[in-house]
Amino acid sequence: MILVKSITLNNFLSHKQNKVEFVGGINVIVGENGAGKSSIMEGILYALFGGSARGHLKGKTADLIKKGERQGWVHLELLDENDTYIIHRTISVSSSHVTDTLASARKGPLASSAQAITQEITKIMGLDKDTLMDTVFVKQGEMESVIDNLGKVLEKVANVENITKLRKQGTFRELRKEIQGRLEYFEKITENSKELEKEIEDKESKVVREKIAIDNFSKQLERVTEEREELEKRIVPMKKAREEYISLTGKRDTIRLEIISLLKKYSLDEENLDVGEGMIISKMKDVGNSYAKEKEVLDEQIAKLERAEGVLKLLDELRRESKRLEGNIKEREKKLVELKQKYDKKISLFPNYNKYAELREKARVLEKEYLNFAKEDKMIKELRKRVEQRKINVNNLREKLSGLEKNAQEFNLNLIRAESDRVIQELSNNRTELVRITDAISKLQNTTEGKCPVCGAPMDEEHKKQLLEEYEKKKALLQGNIFRLESEKKELENKMKKGDDFERQIIKVRAEISQAESELSKEEIELSSREKTLKALESNAREYEGIRQELSRLESDYNEYVSVSSVSEEEIKETEMRIEEERREFEEKKNEIVKLEKELQGIERSDIVKLPELKQRKDFLLGKMKEVDNDIDRFTDLFRQYKELIRMINVMNFNEEEYQQTDKQLSELEKRENELKSEIYKRKYLIENEEKEISQLKDKLINTKEEIKEKEVYDKALGKLRKLEDVLSDEKLPAYLKQTVSRILEKKAYMNLSMFDMQFSSLALDERNDYQPLLDKGDGYTIPARNLSGGERVALSLSLRLALASLHNSRVGFVILDEPTVFLDETRKRELLSVILKSREFISQIIVVTHDEEVVEGADSVIKVRNLNGNSEVVREAVA
């Protein structure tokens, strides 16, 4: 049974990118009108068959692409009992970019073209697009249409159109061939049922054999487990002893290696271990004594050089300080010359500096008025430009008004309106007369009496004929007048509209001229006022500009004075005093340097450079002396541990060969135990799979036998067809075929209807009334479908649709209802919802598209769709 698992829409109608997942039971897609709910159903139908339910295509699949996009796609997943089918269809403005695929999770790719996908899906589902739309896909407002159009639907199911063609072409035997083909199909599935029975029997025998094998392996496993547990008890103490033996020998070997490493350090061989501990320690002490003697010599050399090093550091410091003082004296003497030059410059520039400061203060006072002058001058220039442009605009508008008034003179609206009223009145009179003449013709044609129905005078057939001819002429004349007057009316309406347009434009342009002239006058007044203000500010502006020129001339002297203004006589005197102080300090440093150089006579700087090397050698000797003492202590401790470990190993009595043999036996038993467990698991898994397959085969066998039961109908049909081949006419044959199919449909529909707990004892299809359903509640009276309650009609509609789908051997397990509550009152709506909830018991999956929030109650899944700025958004809501 096939269900809808999910659909993904990309640039499809109003959906930018949305994925909708469905569950078993009732799925409700809810949202306001225009939110994009039905687009989801459109996507399912397009993915299945590449078509539309509401005519969105208009001949081009590109019409399904979201506005403004070049490409879109739909991705549909169908869930089968043992498989999943994945359909991907692309929609593109350019056909070269279209890629369509159909794949199976178990079998891989199945089709890669639009037509091949549609054919394969039809085969998988057991029905084509038209049948799907007639049965399980219920479009908006067409829930009960199957009842009203059942006759047409039966014609399609019974293949009446094609069979009628065969009959008319003189090939009636082709119909027999088709029925025989159906019977051959029943013979084939009968053979298949026998094969299924044989396969079930073989698999059940195989299950029995496997269960016997499991019993044998279980007994072997029990014996092997007992042996393994006994051997594990024996090996536990052996493992403990072996671990202790390995630990002791490991420690012994590790300590021996450490001792040998110490011996090699003092140029002793491994054989010296046999000489004894005392001799080895004596040789190690001799090495330490040699290090001590060398250290005593180094101590004297280091003490002498450390004293010389201190004197040399002091001498270097005095030389650096002396050099620094000498440099400072030269810098200060140079600075003193510069200070005297700057001070002379300061005295010479002071008059210009003072004049510049006075002018700058005066300019500051006049600057505000100068800025006002510049601002007014700029605004006057802009205002003059605006005034000139305003004059040009006024002239242009006047020229435009002149042209409009000239064109408007061609229209006399009063005369046109009067002519229009006359034409309308004449048109009304002609239409009234046409109605009267038409009514008179109708009465004349239908009268059977010997007098005129209009005037009441006696009338024979000849007179009646003449009257009719006269009325027909009048009618034709009136129709011609009406056509002519309607043309005149339309022409006059166009003239009035054009004249009105000219009047509106003239009024608009006059208003624009008035406004433009008013604004021009205001700006001319403003310009005159601002020119007067500018003239008053002009003298101060000229004075300000003269001061700015003088400031510009004096600015360089002013800046130069500012740069030297900080120089003073006190700074010059202080600099001269500091030079004398540093000269005295310089002479003192030179005398100290001479004393220290005499003290270092006989010692070279290269000797002092070796001091770190000598100290490093001394530290090295100290480390070596300490290392020898540590090595002696380490050797003594290691030698004692080594002797003790040898004693403990000799005391143990461990047999490695015996342990390895026992461990090997235990590994073999564990391996055999795992092999037996694996074999039992594999056979249990095989039995489980076989039993599942047996269950599936039995279900398939039951379905096949149920299907075989229909063979009797076709046997009878073939017998009747043979009898009727020579006697049935073209008109009776389709009715016979529809009757045969309707009998099957009655049974299947009644079985479905009974699942809704409807209290009907039978269901029949009325052949005389286009196969309209008749139902009996057990009281002997039949009820036409049109007289049923709203809920009963909905249940009947669903029952008929499911029955029609089963006639096509459909494997579809879902029903899609698009806006089923539309146009229903509250009572009918409640009845419909009750039927949908009841359908959950025998329809695996129901998908309902609605804007009605009441449908949400009782849903297994609620999918909310809303439109945000032209894009549909999908949100799954929690179900209470």
Concise summary:
The chain is 70% helix and 10% strand. It is of the alpha/beta class and 880 residues long. The radius of gyration is 59 Å and the shape is flat.
What does the secondary structure layout of this molecule look like, with pairings?
Elements: E1 3-12, E2 15-21, E3 25-30, H1 37-49, E4 71-79, E5 84-92, E6 101-104, E7 108-111, H2 114-125, H3 129-134, E8 137-138, H4 145-148, H5 150-157, H6 160-168, H7 173-265, H8 277-408, H9 413-446, H10 461-564, H11 569-599, H12 605-609, H13 611-651, H14 656-708, H15 711-724, H16 732-754, E9 762-766, E10 772-776, E11 782-784, H17 790-807, E12 814-818, H18 826-839, E13 845-850, E14 861-868, E15 871-877
Parallel strand pairs: 3-13, 3-14, 8-12, 12-13
Antiparallel strand pairs: 1-2, 1-4, 4-5, 5-6, 6-7, 9-10, 10-11, 14-15
Helix pairs in contact: 5-16, 6-16, 7-13, 7-14, 7-15, 8-10, 8-11, 8-13, 9-10, 16-17, 17-18
